[in-house]
Amino acid sequence: MTRGAKLAVVFSGGGAQAAYFGAGVARAIEDAGLDPCLLSGVSAGAINACGLAVGMDAATLADMWRRIDCADLFSLRFDAWSMFDPRRLVRRPLSNLPQNLLDAIGWRWLLDTSPSRRTFADYFGDGPLPVTEGKTVVVSAVDQSSAEVVRFTNALPPAHRGKAEYVETTIGVEHLLASTAAPLLFPPGKIGGNEYIDAGLVANTPLKPALAYEPDAAIVVGASGITRPAPSPTSLGETIGLIAENVAQSALLADYRHAETVNELAAAAPEATGKKRIELLLVEPDGLPFTASGFLRFNTADARALMAHGREVGGKLIAEWPALGVIAAGGRPR
């Protein structure tokens, strides 16, 4: 079944910062009287998207994040006996010691996400998510065997926009675990016998699937607010953070600029393209760079501060958005 959407909201991934900032922007969207019909998210953004899709209002979503801390999402692994196999370290050729050392490490991920499964089940239910009638949600993940981005959704986009990467299904906790399975940190999510991981490195801001549903307007919520040009990192943690931020920002800008180009073509020569012009609004944090340590820092103090920041930044940009009046009134931007 294909459903239309007047307003789409796209939630980026990026750990705790993405979760909190995105929830704050959701408050600003609600403050403006907007009710999105299409919600697209990846990783922490997928949790925000699903929360709104199942009928949570923005205040309830914010309250959920204030209550969740690290212990509710992950814990240390205790199977230390499987962590290291010294026999692989001394296998021939001995000259290939770096490779042998890596092969001797038996762990494929560092943290146990059993707490996440219980927490998501508590908030969303242990069965199919009860997506609100009239809303479409898209959760993105990467199939680890094929390296393809897969879009799990409760309703397919229009047939002429293609369906190769979309899987129509009943969204559940397993899809959230797949989309939030950050490589090396968390175990892959398993769906239908396949292993899926976080799509954050290749599609951290899932704008493309949102545009496939041909909404009239889309609010794109970023998770990175680093000052550009970025300062040189001074530690390994800052280096990892900058690499992740640059990859995510590059993917976001590529998709966003492509959407702007399509808009220009649709406005200048509508007969030359079958695509419609879609009003776009990009909302990003101000002066909040992504950090490796902040990725997993789930706590009440950060939640309150970052959600307040998201509500403030989002509220200001939405208030100045030329499309606001017609979208709030249920019309179509021209």
UniProtKB/TrEMBL annotation:
GO molecular function, one term: hydrolase activity
Keyword Protein biosynthesis: no
GO biological process: lipid catabolic process
Active site per the UniProt annotation: S43, D198
Motif interval(s): GXSXG: 41-45
Sorted UniProt keywords: Hydrolase, Lipid degradation, Lipid metabolism
Protein name in UniProt: NTE family protein
